[in-house]
Structures are given as structure tokens and as C-alpha cells.
Amino acid sequence: MESKPNIQAVAKLANVSIATVSRVINNQGGVRKKTEDRILKAIDELGYIRSAAARTMKKKETKTVGVIVPDIKNPFFPIVMAGIEQKAREKGYFTILSSTSESQAIEEEIVKNFIERGVDGVIITTANEDSDHLKVLQNQGIPIVAVDRSIQNLNVDTVIVDNEKGTYQAIQHLILQGHKRIGIICGPLNTTPAFKRLIGYKKALEDYNIPFNEQYVIHGDFQEQSGYKGTKELYSLDEQPTAIFSSNNLMSIGSLKALQDCNWILGKEVSFIGFDDIDIATFMNPKLTVVARPMNTLGELAFQLLHERISFKESVPRREYMLSPELKIRESCRLN
Amino acid sequence: MESKPNIQAVAKLANVSIATVSRVINNQGGVRKKTEDRILKAIDELGYIRSAAARTMKKKETKTVGVIVPDIKNPFFPIVMAGIEQKAREKGYFTILSSTSESQAIEEEIVKNFIERGVDGVIITTANEDSDHLKVLQNQGIPIVAVDRSIQNLNVDTVIVDNEKGTYQAIQHLILQGHKRIGIICGPLNTTPAFKRLIGYKKALEDYNIPFNEQYVIHGDFQEQSGYKGTKELYSLDEQPTAIFSSNNLMSIGSLKALQDCNWILGKEVSFIGFDDIDIATFMNPKLTVVARPMNTLGELAFQLLHERISFKESVPRREYMLSPELKIRESCRLN
DNA sequence: AGATAAAATCTAAACGTTTACATTTAGGGG
DNA sequence: CCCCTAAATGTAAACGTTTAGATTTTATCT
Fold it and tell me: B84: which of A92, A205, B79, B299 fits an S-S bond (Cβ 3.0–4.6 Å)?
């Protein structure tokens, strides 16, 4: 196998200088049609593909944005990613995705790697919000957009959903149906989404004068297993809750499995609302009432903000978009 | 904002030559402890991060593998990806993921981009199997591993599951329960998985002397919508099938929705088996019988093969791993 | 045809690393 | 204390682009 052809080889074959070749591959114009054809032919003949590395070195830009998510297995993120990818492609950008498995150590590794590679910007759902480990990005002048989870003490554009409101509405819905003992399965409370959802829960109780009871608050980690365990805990309480709110999709699945295993009858003995719509929602019997988020839009918006930052380096003030989730009322909640 | 520090700046601050700095950042040893400390301190002070671009240019390697999937929204791929990512991290490799949305045009774009970036290898589930558009990779000497779908006329390592066998077992299971009119919802037949699943279906019918009936074969595209439509078609047949086999997860979901909308009662009026286990499977009533694939293993194995190729450039002969899927018998099939 | 302007093309210098090879420094033995 | 060897460090070239500025070619107008 020959060594890979470079711009030099193309230039020689087409009998021009490398500068002219460069002009052609970058569509800069100012090249005679005849010359261009000759060069194009040479490129084709040699199978020349330009080296992004060399180009990046000169241009200091990569037309690449890095995306960091905490858990690629959570279907929420692939959908957000699809939104990002689509918008990025439209603008001629390329995306690279990495997952941290909710580990800050891995997140740091990825960030460093992204910087090494010279990404033009980063879209991140961070594993740890109060984290200095993202300062490096800012020091390097790399724009950041936080999506789904905001970042403390870092002045970055943010696209989130109104977690508090979404949860408030869900809990309110339950209260209005007569529920007073409502369990909530939380995510990691050092993440805004999890925290805000708990706030929404508390506020709804307060507004309707229902005493807050610590035993109904389960501390989960956004993984299926913790939803399962948490639900069993709730079940084993002397005064069982009559309704359960689960703070994310994966935990909802775990929770529902626990319900089945306990023979705790959904929609009859216990009402249920989950944050995030999931495939199973409409297949369950009864169908699941959920708080749904505009996931695709979240991604599209995130890229759009990032792109603006990349394009106009001038300091636009920080922007925060808060999208509204929607309570999709189906059948898993019953009067109590 | 200062311009980013380079190795030169570090060298000056630490009062050494750039060669020594290079030795330190690459852990090559042969540097006096005292000097190393001085350099490390300088690196830290300046916030120096080496440029991958410049490095790649010299070394002609990136420690990066590119992963191409046809549909990031299909939960199958994120799980495979998780397997790849984990193994890659262990070996010090970094992965970049892109999704083609089943479009060959986009796939070509991505491939080109990967080459430009100098990925050391590619793991791909191609959108179009009989495709010359992957030859470029081979021409560039970039190792490829095909996962889930093989590639025609290209001599690459392959990791797939035994689609034919998996489907055969499913259909056999239905036949032994007395079903004779069995519908199948196929994926795009120019992909091996879809094709092989159809083959498995036909072979099972043949082995049990059940006549093949074209009207029970629905041509879908692996997307939810086609599963929905296909199922309605089957429902509208004069001689409705008594059982349905769906060739992938997304189409299963569509199919099940159609069942509900038609009031065609699952497990009673119609039996059902889907390829790939899905969240909803165990929540349905009755629970879904499925053909399950070892998705995580698929990814791990794929990276392993690729890594071997990258490490020992010598021409090991082509390898093909075919993993066995497993028929998980639950409740969605009933005697007929 | 000659002068001039405009268009096309070329030359050469970066960009930030790695590394073969050259040079300096340190350490030990006599 | 000097010499020799090994260890540590330095020098300089190369990797493949882009691009400013220099030069050549072409086209236009008298």
C-alpha cells in the first residue's frame, strides 16, 4: 500500500503549485476552469483526501462540536442528540458524541480530549454540576452550551425544561384526585433536574396544605435499579403512599417492575406519574400518565445557541431557555 | 484572551528544549526528576494542552475509532455502543459516533470525514451493504469491522448474530403451537439481518410443510410506522394470520400499537414474537415472547477485533463471529 | 502592437508536534 | 584530577496544510 497522497502529490500530477490545489479543494474560486478540472482529475486519480489534522493546525478550527452526555443508554439522550446532529449537519458541522456513564473522572478525560482535538464548541449534560472541571473549556475560549442540566458558577448558555413546573403539575394532578400520601423517587439531588423536581413536589404539597413527609422521599440515581428498590421501600411502609411520582424514565421502568412484583395494582391501589414519556407508557394497562419533554427541540436549540456563540465571538450575554414540559394525562391515576 | 500556549511556551518557562518537554508529556522517561517537575509545573501554570492535530500529523495515528450506526434512536445501537466504548477506553482509545439515519449519502459523508480525521479504525453497521462506498476506507488501509450487518464484496471482520437461526426458532415455536398462518414484518431486504430473518422464516415453514404465502410477508423499513401499517394490512386480510413475527424492536412497537387500535387481542386472537427484547416486553399483558440478542457483547467483540487489526497490521485472515440469539419465551404465544 | 489592469498562479513561511542525531552534563574508576 | 561512558538534554527537520505577498499570464483598451 502506497503512502497516502498529499496535496503535493496532487499538485505535481496536475502540474500546478500546491496553493492552487488548496484553492480548489476549498472552493475559493479564482482558478481557471481548465486548471480546476485538471486538479479535480488528479485528486480523483490519486484518491486524495485532505488531512484534517494539518488543516486544523493552520486554521485553528475544526467545524466540529463535541457532545457529552451522562448515559447513552437512556433513550432521552439519543433523541436530543438526533436534534443536535440534524441542525449541525445543516450548518456544515460535524458532531462527536461521548458518554460519561455519570462519572466525573471520565467526563474530565473527555473534556481534555475534546480540547486536544480542538472542537469549536461543546454541548454538555454534565455529570457534576458544581464543577470546576469545565473551567478549562472556558479558559481555552471554547463556547459551551449546557443542556438539560445547568452548570453552577459558569457563565454558559443553557437549554433546560421547567422541571419544577412539570413536576408541580403532576403532583397537583394527583392532589386534585384526592391523593395525600404521594411518594417521589428522586434522582441524584446534586443535579438540577432531580433537585428541581423535588422542589416542584414540595411546592405543590405546600400549596395544597399537605404535610411533607420525609419517608415518602426516595433517593435514587436515575438508574432502573434504584426505581425498583425505591418502590419496594415505599411498598413496605406502614402507611403506604397512594400515588408515586418517578423522576425519570429509567426509574419509572424499575418502579413499574416493582409494582408488578409486589402485586401492587397500578391505577387501582396506587396511582403513578413518571417524568419523561417512554415507549411502555401507552402499552401498559392502564396507560401511563407522564410529564413529557420536547427532547428533539432541546437538541436543536442547543446547537443553535452554540452555533451563534461560535460564529459571533463577541460577548452576547448569557441566555437561558426554559422549555415547558407537558403533562400527558392518560390512565394511571385514579381518584382516591 | 491570550493565544493558547504551545510546547514552545512550556519549554521556555521551564527553561528546557521542546524535545525534553515532549519526552515528559509522552512519558518516555530519560528525564531527570528535577527537570520533569519543573516542566510539569510549567504545564500546569500555563494550562498547556497539547494539540492533537499537530501530534497526529507527525505520528499518523489518532488513537481514535469511528463508529457509524444507521439509527441512533433505535435503542439497540446505544447499547452496542456502550460495549464498544467501554472496551475502547480500556485500551486507551477514544470513540466518535455518528448516525446516518439509514442514508447512504450521509454515510459517505461520515466516512470521508472519518478519513480526514485519520481514525485508526472504523466499526460500522452500514446503511447499504452492497456498497463500494466503503472501499475508500480499505484503500486508505483503515481497518473495518462490520457489526450487525455484514458487507458484501469487502473483506472485513464481522460480528453478527445468527438471524436465521433466531427467527427459525421463533417461527418453529409458533408452528409447534399449531399456527399455520404466520405473518412476518420484514425490514429492508437489502440488509442481511432483514433478509436472513426472512430466510429463517421460510425455512421453518418448509421444514414443517407449511405452504409459503406471499400475502403474509410485509415489507417494512425497521421504523415504527411500517410496523404499524404492516400489522393493519395483515388485519385486513380475508384470512388473517393467527400469529405475527416482527423483525425488529421499533416495528414491534408499531405493530403492537396497531393491535391495540384494531382491537386484535394479543395472545388470544393473535400470537406475537418480536426480534429484540424491548422495555415494553415484560410490561405488556401478556408479556412478550422475543428473540433477544447479546447487544453489549456484540459491541465489545467488535472493538476487540478492530483493536487486533489496528495493532498487528499483518494480514490475519478475515474473521466472522456469529453469536446466537436466544428465544425468550413469555406469554404472547398461545396454542392455536 | 504596447501599455495597463485584472486574473491566475506560484513561493515561502508558518502552524505545533515528534524524533533521529548531535551535544552537553554527570558520575565513577583509575 | 582526568578520562570515559552513560545519561540527559538540545537541535533541527519533517509532517500536510493555508495564505499573504510576489510573480506571471491573460485580457482589455488605445
Answer: B299
Which of 226-265 (A) contact B at CB < 8 A? 253, 256-257, 260
Environment class of B110 (CB within 10 Å of its CB; exposed 0-12, middle 13-18, buried 19+): buried
Could you give the CA distance from residue B93 to residue B85 in angstroms, rounded to a whole number? Answer: 9
Cell of A292: 413529557
Q: Which of A3, A84, A97 to mutate to test the interface with B (most CBs of B within 10 A)?
A: A97
Over the stretch A155-194, which tens digit does the pLDDT of each residue have? 999 999 999 999 999 999 999 999 999 999 999 998 899 9
- Would you tell me how many other CB atoms lie within 10 Å of the CB of residue A180? 16
- Chain A residues 12-51 within 7 Å (CB) of strand D: 18-19, 22-23, 25-26, 48, 50-51
Considering only CA atoms, give the Rg of chain A.
26
What span, in angstroms and rounded, lies between the C-alpha atoms of B231 and B259? Answer: 7
CB count in 10 Å sphere of residue A239: 9
Interface of A with B in 274-293 (CB under 8 A): 278-280, 282-285
| Domains in chain A with CATH codes | 7-50 (1.10.260.40), 60-161+295-324 (3.40.50.2300), 163-292 (3.40.50.2300)
What is the Cα–Cα distance from B161 to B151, expressed in whole angstroms?
Answer: 14
Smallest CA-to-CA distance from B266 within B312, B96, B274 is with B274
Q: pTM surpassing 0.85? A: yes
- A281-334 pLDDT, tens per residue? 888 889 999 999 999 999 999 999 999 999 986 678 999 999 999 999 999 998
C-alpha angle with apex B156: B150 to B158, nearest 5 degrees? Answer: 45
Radius of gyration of chain B (CA): 26
Per residue of chain A (336 residues), what is the pLDDT tens digit? 456 899 999 999 999 999 999 999 999 999 999 999 999 999 999 999 999 999 999 999 999 999 999 999 999 999 999 999 999 999 999 999 999 999 999 999 999 999 999 999 999 999 988 778 899 999 899 999 999 999 988 999 999 999 999 999 999 999 999 999 999 999 999 889 999 999 999 999 999 999 999 999 999 999 999 999 999 999 999 999 999 999 999 999 999 999 999 999 999 999 999 999 988 888 888 999 999 999 999 999 999 999 999 998 667 899 999 999 999 999 999 888
Whole-angstrom distance, CA of residue A294 vs CA of residue A289: 16
3-state secondary structure of A284: coil
Q: What is the pLDDT of residue A2?
A: 56
Q: Is B155 exposed, middle or buried (0-12, 13-18, 19+ CB in 10 A)?
A: exposed
CA of B65: which chain A residue's CA is closest?
A: A96
Instruction: Tell me the nt nearest to B7, Cα to C1'.
Output: C16
Indicate the SS3 state at residue A275.
Answer: strand
